[in-house]
């Protein structure tokens, strides 16, 4: 489910950081202070040859 503008605006701070995922590798992190950050999940795999 993609994050909507309304869901982002209504996100309230909690005692711990909250992560709201969109299902496409991006998420919004809401800190206890109320700051909102957009982030992406990047995975790095090291291949052995």
Number of helical segments? 1
Radius of gyration: 14 Å
Q: Let me know the number of strands.
A: 3
Q: Helices and strands: which structural class?
A: mainly beta
Proportion of residues in helical segments = 10-25%
Provide the domain count.
1
Could you give the distance between the termini? 38 Å
SSE ordering: HEEE
The stretches of 5 or more residues where confidence is low (pLDDT under 50) are: none
Report the biggest beta sheet as strand number plus sense, adding barrel if it closes.
3 strands, antiparallel
State the strand order across the main sheet. 1-2-3
Mean pLDDT across the residues is 81
Shape: flat
What are the main properties of this structure?
49 residues, three-stranded antiparallel sheet
Overview of the structural elements:
The chain is mostly beta strands and 49 residues long. The protein contains 1 helix and 3 strands, in the order H-E-E-E. The chain has a 3-stranded antiparallel beta sheet, with no helix packed on it. The chain starts with a helix and ends in a 9-residue tail after the last strand. 0% of the residues are buried.
Which helices and strands appear, and what pairs or packs with what?
Elements: H1 5-9, E1 18-21, E2 26-30, E3 36-40
């Amino acid at each position: 489910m993609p994050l909507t503008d309304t869901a982002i605006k209504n996100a309230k701070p909690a005692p711990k950081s909250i992560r709201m995922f969109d299902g496409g590798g991006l998420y919004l992190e809401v800190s206890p202070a109320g700051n909102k950050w957009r982030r992406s999940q990047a995975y790095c795999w090291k291949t052995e040859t």
